[in-house]
Amino acid sequence: MSTSKSSFKNFILPMIIIGALFFIFGFVTWLNGILIPYLKIACQLTDFQALFVAFAFYIAYTIMALPSAWVLKKTGFKNGMSIGLWVMAIGTMIFIPAAMSRTYGVFLTGLFVMGTGLALLQTASNPYVTVIGPKESAARRISILGICNKFAGAMAPLILAYYILNDGDAFVESLKAMNAAAQTVALDSLAARVINPYIVMTIVLVIMGIGVRMAPLPEIETSEEDKQAENGGDKKNSIMEFPHLILGVFALFFYVGAEVIAGDTIINYGLSLGIELDTAKAFTSYTMVTMVVGYLLGVTLIPKVIDQRFALKVSAILGILFAMGAIFTSGLTSVIFVAMFGLANALVWPAIWPLALSGLGSFINTGSALLVMAISGGAILPLIWGRLSDVFSTQQAYWVVVPCYLFIFFYAVKGYKIRSWKPGSVKSREASTELGK
């Protein structure tokens, strides 16, 4: 009986609480898919300008990840997660004056603050999930939480679209017949629609922060990791002495860029093909649904049938194939291939985290922060997509994801095994042992 209670407190309860967190920040994150076309209309933006929604949100991870690691050292993981939720609440509150003034820069400020809170949450929650159970099943645990995240991501754009773009096509058509003064009034009214949903999100985030603060969550202990690192015979003095981590950061950078492109550009892509907004506004949800399918496969197959490295290889190959399909087909078929990126992306994040964090010991906080910084791929690569779409076409812009998946494939085959920057330093023994093979 006591063993059962201990298991609940040390593993099941943390998973439930972290699952709720993943749901919350999945919901907030994938609102960007509908915010991009919404703000493009409300603030009269080009594709490139509209993609600064993703830039402002995800660049916060790069700027704030290392400060987040410092905060976690001072506060602990549980208190750090509460602070992250409250910072996100400040970001959602900023949307109120942004909407009232219809000022794009203020919207971007709110998104940056939300991203700052998420940087703290991600820095705490991902290593938390990695170390509270066996390493060989870490990808499975993250996959379970990924289902919570992407299920929320599938719901978010549909819910927000209902409140702010339920008449999108008719609204855009009506603007064409208005004079400048009438357009200003209509656009101000459109911007104001976002206020009530973001007030609700602010309240939920504040309550969640209080709940996590009061929850009986155990703190992460790194002493065992330190011992494992020392027993490996390679006592490290700097985070840069872990090549498998640094290469993992680059792999995550490219992955997040590809993931955000898939989720945040698909609505604009559908619109560029002449698909009505009433139909296209659901496309981000399609991408999230395919990701949920991928996560379910991960939960079912890892580690009993396949290991997380094999899942990473397959994910990279599928990403390349779906990119070719998106580029070389047309119409709704091409859009479906973009949505299928979700399937290719699903297991990349849960596979890279345990591979990259393996054996870091006392460097786990900093290593986690670097991996969170890699989320900046979601800031930079969508902007490249936006520029390519303006210069060439929205379809040809998807070439940007091909090198992303090629690097992920390299990491799955070789990069994760490299334990020293010296030539010929691949150490498969440590890697296979740490992965439970």
UniProtKB/TrEMBL annotation:
CDD domains, sorted: MFS_FucP_like
State the organism of origin. Answer: Paralabilibaculum antarcticum
Q: What subcellular compartments does it reside in? A: Cell inner membrane
Q: Does the keyword Transmembrane helix apply?
A: yes
Keywords on record: Cell membrane, Membrane, Transmembrane, Transmembrane helix
Membrane-protein topology: Multi-pass membrane protein
Q: Read off the Gene3D superfamilies from this record.
A: MFS general substrate transporter like domains (1.20.1250.20)
**Keyword set includes tRNA processing:** no
Instruction: Give the residue spans that cross the bilayer.
Output: 12-36, 48-72, 79-98, 104-121, 142-165, 195-215, 245-271, 283-303, 310-329, 335-356, 363-385, 397-413
Q: What is this protein called?
A: Sugar MFS transporter
What this chain does, per the entry, is described as: Intake of glucose and galactose.
Identify the NCBIfam families for this entry. Answer: gluP (TIGR01272)
Q: What is its main location?
A: membrane
The positions making up the signal sequence are none
Give the family per the record.
Answer: Belongs to the major facilitator superfamily. FHS transporter (TC 2.A.1.7) family.
> Which InterPro entries does the record cross-reference, listed alphabetically?
Glc/Gal_transptr_bac, MFS, MFS_trans_sf, MFS_TsgA-like
